[in-house]
Amino acid sequence: MNVVPMETYSQRILKGGGVVAWQRLARFRKASRAVRQYSKSGLLDDLLDIGAADGIGLPFLKPLAKRLLSVNYYEEHSREFKAAHPDDEILTADARKLPLVDASFDAVVSFETLHLLGVAEERQKGLAEIYRVLRPGGLLVCSIPIEVGYSALIKLTARAATGHQLDGMSLAMALRHCFYRFGNIEQFDKGRQVGFNAYHFVDDVASLFTVLETWSIPIPILFPMNLLVVARKEDR
Fold first, then answer.
1. Global confidence as pTM
2. Among 26, 92, 93, 153, which one is most buried in terms of CB atoms within 10 A?
3. Does domain 9-146+197-232 have CATH number 3.90.780.10?
């Protein structure tokens, strides 16, 4: 019996191109530009990618550093990564407890991952670990989903059109997120998109780092699907 291989993350995202692929790749393009813009020394020595999946971002990230270490939480994702990129480094680990030496990276990037570490307290542990492994002056560049404001309705419509429904995100819940300033949506936060407030997450980043810039991507105002955050670990 022939076994049909399961699609990898990249295959699922990029097949057919279109808006989904364009939107996903936009975060890597913007992040790579930000690393180049804010890096103090041109080509980095060491770059860490948290939540690398099967290496979808490698074409954008590898030119930024002499060494790129990718991290996944799930072993199956690491196997997909190794199959696609046998010569690149991959580590399976929990971002809240990284088995890495203090001050060993010039920059850390992460795409649509840090909001999945758990509720706010668990995400703070992840940010503390990133702070620990960064060298003084090092950069954190991450993207997180914008699930509040009118983006909630844009995403609800997009998910309905593509069949990628999000557990717990009904029309009523999306409206709560749309008008998040008039209620406490974070009471629904279980460590995923529902109840997640990207702007409060930026405040959490600012409690440890100096936030240099934020951008709504792929298109500010018109199509704000994700928030890219650029922050620095200041010298102490």
1. 0.92
2. 26
3. no
Contact 111, 29 (CB under 8 A): no
The CA distance from 155 to 170, in Å, is: 11
- Cα(44)–Cα(66) distance, rounded to whole angstroms? 6
Kind and range of the H or E run holding 144:
strand 134-145
Residue 176, pLDDT score: 96
Q: Which helix (H) or strand (E) holds 155?
A: helix 151-162
Calpha distance 6→159 (Å, rounded): 22
What is the reported pLDDT for 61?
A: 97
pLDDT higher at 41 or 157? 157
Cα 191 to the center of its chain, rounded Å: 14
- CA pair distance 183, 131, nearest whole angstrom: 32
User: Does residue 211 sit in helix, strand or coil?
Assistant: strand
Q: What is the DSSP letter of 101?
A: -
What would the two tokens of residue 176 be? 């709560």
Q: Any idea how long the chain is? A: 236
Confidence at residue 236, expressed as pLDDT on a 0 to 100 scale: 61
**Averaged pLDDT score across all residues of the chain:** 91
Report the C-alpha gap between 147 and 130 in whole angstroms: 24
Give the pair of three-digit tokens for residue 110. Answer: 């992460």
- For the chain, the domains span 9-146+197-232, 148-189
